[in-house]
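debug: dumping io for the single-chain case to check the tokenizer round-trip. Nothing else runs in this session.
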Amino acid sequence: MNILARFLGTIFALLIAAYVVNGFIVESLYAAAIVAVMLGIINITLKPIVLLIALPIQILTLGLFTFVVNALFLWFVASFVQGFTVAGFVPALIGSLIITAVLWVLDILF
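debug: decoded output
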């Protein structure tokens, strides 16, 4: 999937997660776009390093710890972006699962 499609897919996934999950709030399309850009930058730069450091936990959990890492990154981004609020770790984890599922489906379709 190319960069523009992944960016738009992330915005779409964020809006779906905000609609479904209590405590996961995206106030505007602009805020969703800023969050998508920040998540893209974090996923390119920090995520490989964090997953490499957490490799023993990844092996023990058969890769499910990736969802925890994604939730922590969402929660981290929510502390910086106005108009994007995550009420705690559980909404971040559920939002991470929804975002991953939507992007996975879009990756299969496109």
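debug: round-trip ok. The two ends are 6 Å apart (CA to CA).
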